[in-house]
């Protein structure tokens, strides 16, 4: 492998490889500009038949123009592949090879010839997968190094040359370790073979990625969406894609990744926003939340919804003109029982009932010599007597009112939870002070999930083509069901780390979680190579693994970073000042800083920073060159990362949770947010696992 950085002034342009590559970059930028200008100049007025088509075309054109933006600090290409033979051609003696520049998006010249190939195209795959063992017909793989938007270095691997040793790429290492200011970056230039395999797995199957801190699982999930949108553009444009994250600050942190890859069409949401049928103003105690989040609640709700159906005991008389048609009670009962047995959605069955009754009337009409058609059947279905019977037998159900009644009425709950929930569990979920109405109720987020389940029992939830679920280990079984409803006809990418589960109902095993999601056949992949967190830091955090996730493989960090961990004990009254001093030290380095502390400690640290004159951000706010420090409550640290982390009082982080295991998991999350260095500051004793 040969690395080249240009330091001398450029001389003989044609002979200087770096000058040639810079020329190709300038020409590619000009070609992209021309592609954008062509799109902007398109006149669609003559090609559309009506205003609806015109609006659709105009929106598509706007999206196209947006996706052709040249982002100043985002290199157009980051690699080059020189094939020994033209891809797809017969590998004949003397056949000419071909070179391709690999980048974030496709760029072509005025003749339509490619100048940059999209990283997702099949021809780009060897950039990520080729090796000395399997060169994949590649003579040369070249990686480019950039400073700002300028091409400043390149590095070559001659994959088909047996005499050249295999080494780790310095440029790759630098790109992985580059300081982070602003939102999350894409990893398109640094995707590893095991990550690429997940990224390029097909749309049909669901994938679950178990990955420890710094293994790139979030980035892999987002790149998989970008890949699927490239490979199945039309289908996913119809069915839609969705990325689900744990909170808004996390979504804000990742929201730039897909646009940088040219994808603007992916919706983002939290589980709470997906199920927002009511305003959430209350919280549950852990025992109540555990029961409400249990999958058994689905059966309680199913019984409660179906309990609204009462079998008819009276015959039905339908008057049409001078004739009267009588349907006996036993026949009505058969119709209703048959619909119940089919176990279709409550609302769909309710819509079908008047038609079934009308059909029974039509059979009698035909028997008496009449020849009724579909219009007569529809008219009978709308008949007042039929409507009255349907309303009495199969009344409409309001999902929120149903859940309100279950949580307020002990008898109603007992009737439908019998044999499913114990008496103690029933008492845990009953409201101490029943709410009067849906509007006045102080709903919790677990209640909103129950309403979502009831809503789906009444009418089917719309399903998308692909859903990415990140930080999945924190979902309850009922939340998994809510997400699963949104991809019943599509596939899912589930991302998480069992060791980072910090809710009382945190996932114990992926098999169980995937079952609740309705994706029991998903393939579970484990990422164990860490690229972001230094080896010393991950080894220190991993001391907690035997207690928080026995049996889980420790992340093996590829990053050697001596001196990246410091643990400092201070006197009881010196904690705030010591944390501020550690932040001041860290701010002398390049990149972002996170001061992470137990939620209860945040006000004291905020005051200490303010009195030291240090400005800081809240999680999710974007770092700028002037303000690089974020004050992070431990409960919001998950999924975020900073170049340097100062961690305040580990024992307070543990004590802030309802039980020791959840506290240690929260601490594991906090310890693994650092990309370059971690300083642990404590006055109280450290948890015994770290001592």
TrEMBL record:
Show the GO cellular component annotation of the record.
cytosol
InterPro entries from the UniProt entry: DNA_helicase_UvrD/REP, P-loop_NTPase, UvrD-like_ATP-bd, UvrD-like_helicase_C
Instruction: Offer one example of a GO biological process linked to this entry.
Output: recombinational repair
Q: Which Gene3D superfamilies match?
A: P-loop containing nucleotide triphosphate hydrolases
Keywords (A to Z) from UniProt: ATP-binding, Helicase, Hydrolase, Nucleotide-binding
Q: Which GO terms describe its molecular function?
A: 3'-5' DNA helicase activity; ATP binding; DNA binding; hydrolase activity
Where does this protein hold ATP? Answer: 211-218
Q: What is this protein called?
A: ATP-dependent DNA helicase rep
The record lists the organism as Streptomyces formicae
Organism classification, top ranks? Bacteria, Bacillati, Actinomycetota, Actinomycetes, Kitasatosporales
């Amino acid at each position: 492998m040969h690395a080249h950085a240009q330091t001398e002034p450029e001389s003989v342009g044609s002979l200087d490889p770096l000058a040639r590559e810079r020329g190709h970059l300038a020409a590619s930028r000009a070609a992209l500009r021309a592609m954008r200008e062509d799109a902007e100049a398109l006149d669609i007025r003559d090609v559309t038949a009506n205003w609806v088509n015109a609006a659709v075309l105009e929106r598509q054109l706007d999206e196209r123009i947006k996706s052709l933006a040249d982002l100043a600090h985002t290199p157009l290409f980051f690699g080059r592949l020189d094939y020994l033979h033209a891809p797809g051609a017969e590998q004949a003696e003397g056949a000419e090879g071909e070179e391709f520049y690999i980048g974030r998006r496709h760029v072509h010249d005025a003749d339509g010839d490619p100048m940059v190939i999209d990283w997702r195209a099949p021809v780009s795959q060897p950039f990520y997968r080729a090796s000395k063992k399997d060169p994949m017909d590649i003579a040369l793989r070249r990686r480019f190094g950039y400073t700002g938007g300028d091409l400043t270095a390149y590095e070559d691997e001659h994959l088909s040359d047996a005499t050249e040793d295999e080494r780790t790429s310095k440029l790759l290492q630098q790109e992985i370790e580059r300081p982070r200011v602003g939102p999350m970056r894409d990893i398109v230039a640094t995707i590893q073979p095991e990550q690429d395999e997940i990224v390029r797995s097909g749309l049909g199957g669901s994938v679950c990625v178990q990955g420890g801190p710094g293994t790139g699982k979030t980035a892999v999930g987002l790149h998989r969406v970008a890949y699927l949108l490239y490979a199945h553009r039309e289908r996913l444009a119809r069915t839609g894609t969705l990325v689900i994250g744990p909170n808004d600050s996390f979504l804000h942190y990742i929201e730039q990744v897909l646009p940088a890859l040219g994808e603007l069409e992916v919706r983002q949401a939290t589980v709470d926003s997906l199920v927002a049928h009511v305003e959430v103003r209350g919280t549950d105690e852990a025992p109540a939340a555990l029961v409400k989040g249990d999958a058994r609640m689905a059966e309680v709700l199913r019984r409660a919804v179906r309990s609204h159906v009462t079998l008819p005991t009276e015959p039905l008389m339908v008057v049409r003109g001078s004739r009267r048609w009588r349907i006996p009670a036993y026949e009505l009962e058969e119709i209703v029982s048959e619909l119940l047995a089919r176990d279709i959605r409550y609302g769909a069955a309710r819509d079908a009932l008047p038609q079934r009754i009308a059909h029974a009337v039509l059979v009698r009409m035909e028997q008496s010599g009449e020849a009724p058609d579909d219009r007569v059947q529809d008219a009978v279905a709308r008949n007042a007597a039929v409507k009255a019977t349907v309303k009495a037998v199969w009344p409409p159900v309001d999902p929120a009112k149903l859940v309100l009644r279950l949580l307020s009425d002990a008898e109603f709950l007992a009737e439908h939870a019998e044999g499913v929930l114990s008496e103690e569990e029933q008492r845990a979920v009953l409201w101490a002070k029943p709410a009067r109405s849906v509007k006045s109720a102080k709903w919790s987020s677990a209640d909103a999930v129950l309403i979502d389940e009831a809503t789906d029992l009444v009418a089917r939830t719309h399903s998308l083509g692909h859903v990415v679920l990140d930080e999945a280990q924190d979902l309850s079984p009922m939340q998994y069901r809510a997400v699963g409803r949104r991809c019943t006809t599509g596939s899912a990418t589930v991302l998480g780390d069992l060791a980072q589960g910090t809710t009382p109902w945190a996932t114990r095993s992926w098999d169980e979680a995937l079952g609740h999601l309705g994706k029991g056949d998903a393939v579970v992949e484990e990422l164990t190579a860490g690229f972001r967190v230094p080896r010393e830091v991950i080894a220190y955090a991993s001391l907690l693994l035997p207690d928080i996730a026995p049996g889980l493989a420790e992340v093996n960090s590829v990053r050697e970073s001596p001196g990246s961990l410091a643990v400092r004990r201070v006197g009881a009254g010196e904690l705030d000042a010591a944390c501020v001093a550690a932040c001041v030290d860290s701010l002398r380095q390049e990149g972002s800083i996170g001061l992470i502390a137990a939620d209860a400690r945040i006000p004291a640290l905020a005051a200490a920073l303010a009195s030291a004159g240090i400005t800081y951000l809240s999680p999710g706010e974007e770092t700028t060159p002037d303000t690089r420090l974020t004050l992070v409550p431990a409960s919001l640290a998950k999924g975020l990362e900073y170049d340097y982390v100062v961690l305040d009082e580990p024992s307070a982080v543990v004590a802030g949770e309802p039980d020791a295991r959840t506290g240690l998991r929260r601490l594991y999350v906090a310890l693994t947010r650092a990309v370059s260095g971690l300083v642990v500051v404590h006055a109280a004793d450290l948890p015994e696992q770290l001592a």
